[in-house]
């Protein structure tokens, strides 16, 4: 781990200003992903801005009937919140499917959204990786790619986004609230928050330098049956091969978002018009244009079958 300086801040405005003042600064809260990356020198911040003292650790009802989740709410607390369990059960279930209890006790809402890929070539610093070191190439393309992306991929990167929580947030139409170093605020639809890799896979979100996440807001509940189904190589503490987050209404209509197949939580609203026709029709629309490898072509079938199981479960 390389040397770095450290400071604590007490307000979101101070956090944004501090990150801008020192080139190479990074925010740290739970640190469950960042510290691992620093030990491997994949991340080498010159300055850490500790944001644990800025508040933002509460869940509040909004005037529109939704919830506003502070950026520093821990995953354990969010999953256990009675309002989340009752009205946003998809979110609670996705959180409980992720990581271990110990990690959920430290991980934060904002940090979960900003997790970096678990592509093995990203973590192997002896291998080329356009996400870790732009312009060096992608060892995953032509390499071992069982875990990697099948839609929205590019010739520069086929990494996937690892978050379970973000899949639920995408199905729930969450908005990411931020403050910039100049004090300006904005609310970013989560559909626009994560970027596809294109030829700049190292730029993973639309956040600007120093921009600080303050909260994630959820619209008012939509009802329906909430299901999160995660398929992984072992029963606990593993990232998803694929995951399906769905909200299904009594008439068979609904929403669905998929994890483990793209550089971002994957939702295609047009595919949801096929919900009443079943998993095969939805999957065909959801995965249109998929670009698979020898190792990960099974994901197309796995998505369809998992979605089929989810829809069957919703029927009871």
**Class per helix and strand makeup:** alpha+beta
Form type: globular
* Rg, alpha carbons: 19 Å
Q: What is the distance, rounded to the nearest whole angstrom, between the alpha carbons of the first and last residues?
A: 52 Å
Main beta sheet: strand number and arrangement? 5 strands, antiparallel
Strand order of the largest sheet: 4-5-8-6-7
Share in β-strands: 15-25%
Secondary-structure element order, N to C: EHEHEEEHHHHHHHEEHEEEEHH
Mean pLDDT: 96
Number of helices: 12
Helix content: 25-40%
Number of strands: 11
Residue stretches low in confidence (pLDDT < 50, at least 5 long) are: none
Organism: Sphingomonas agrestis
InterPro entries: CO_DH_flav_C, CO_DH_flav_C_dom_sf, Diverse_Substr_Oxidored, FAD-bd_PCMH, FAD-bd_PCMH-like_sf, FAD-bd_PCMH_sub1, FAD-bd_PCMH_sub2, Mopterin_DH_FAD-bd
Domain FAD-binding PCMH-type: 1-223
Pfam families: FAD_binding_5
Structural topology:
Elements: E1 5-8, H1 12-21, E2 25-28, H2 34-39, E3 47-50, E4 59-61, E5 67-70, H3 75-80, H4 82-87, H5 89-96, H6 101-106, H7 109-113, H8 120-123, H9 165-171, E6 175-179, E7 185-189, H10 190-193, E8 212-218, E9 225-231, E10 242-248, E11 254-259, H11 279-286, H12 298-315
Parallel strand pairs: 1-3, 2-3
Antiparallel strand pairs: 4-5, 5-8, 6-7, 6-8, 9-10, 10-11
Helix pairs in contact: 5-9, 11-12
Organism: Sphingomonas agrestis
Keywords: FAD, Flavoprotein
Pfam families: FAD_binding_5
Key traits:
18% strand, 316 residues
Folded structure, characterized:
The protein is α+β, with helices and mostly antiparallel strands and about 325 residues long. About 30% of the residues lie in helices and about 20% in strands. The protein is built from 12 helices and 11 strands. The protein has helices spanning about 10-20, 35-40, 75-80, 80-85, 90-95, 100-105, 110-115, 120-125, 165-170, 190-195, 280-285, 300-315, and strands spanning about 5-10, 25-30, 45-50, 60, 65-70, 175-180, 185-190, 210-220, 225-230, 240-250, 255-260. The strands form 3 sheets. It has a 5-stranded antiparallel β-sheet. Strands 1-3-2 form a 3-stranded parallel β-sheet, with helices on one face. Strand 6 (about 175-180) and strand 7 (about 185-190) form a beta hairpin. Helix 5 (about 90-95) runs antiparallel to helix 9 (about 165-170) and helix 11 (about 280-285) packs across helix 12 (about 300-315). The chain is globular, with a radius of gyration of 19 Å. The chain starts with a strand and ends with a helix. The model has no long low-confidence stretch (mean pLDDT about 95). It comes from Sphingomonas agrestis. This is Xanthine dehydrogenase family protein subunit M.
């Amino acid at each position: 781990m390389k040397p770095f300086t450290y400071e604590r801040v007490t307000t979101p405005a101070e956090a944004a200003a501090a990150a801008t003042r020192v080139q190479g600064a990074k925010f740290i809260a739970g640190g469950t992903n960042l510290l691992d990356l620093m030990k491997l020198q994949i991340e080498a911040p010159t300055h850490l801005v500790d944001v644990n003292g800025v508040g933002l650790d509460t869940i509040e009802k909004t005037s529109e009937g939704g919830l506003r989740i502070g950026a520093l709410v821990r995953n354990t607390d969010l999953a256990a919140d009675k309002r989340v369990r009752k009205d946003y059960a998809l979110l609670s279930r996705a959180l409980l499917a992720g990581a271990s209890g110990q990690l959920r006790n430290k991980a934060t809402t904002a940090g979960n959204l900003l997790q970096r890929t678990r592509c093995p070539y990203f973590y192997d610093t002896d291998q080329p990786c356009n996400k870790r070191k732009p312009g060096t190439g992608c060892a995953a393309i032509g390499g071992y790619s069982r875990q990697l992306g099948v839609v929205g991929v590019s010739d520069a990167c086929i990494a996937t986004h690892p978050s379970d929580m973000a899949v639920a947030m995408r199905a729930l139409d969450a908005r990411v609230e931020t403050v910039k170093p100049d004090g300006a605020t904005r609310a970013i639809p989560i559909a626009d928050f994560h970027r596809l890799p294109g030829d700049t896979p190292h730029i993973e979100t639309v956040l600007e330098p120093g921009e600080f996440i303050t909260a994630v807001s959820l619209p008012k509940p939509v009802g329906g049956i909430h299901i999160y189904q995660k398929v992984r190589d072992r029963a606990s503490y593993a990232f998803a091969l694929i995951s399906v987050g769905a909200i299904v209404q009594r008439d068979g209509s609904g929403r669905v978002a998929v994890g483990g197949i793209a550089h971002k939580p994957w939702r295609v609203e047009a595919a949801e018009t096929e919900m009443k026709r079943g998993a095969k029709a939805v999957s065909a629309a959801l995965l249109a244009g998929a670009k698979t490898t020898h190792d990960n072509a099974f994901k197309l079938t796995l998505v369809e079958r998992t979605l089929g199981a989810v829809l069957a479960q919703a029927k009871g």
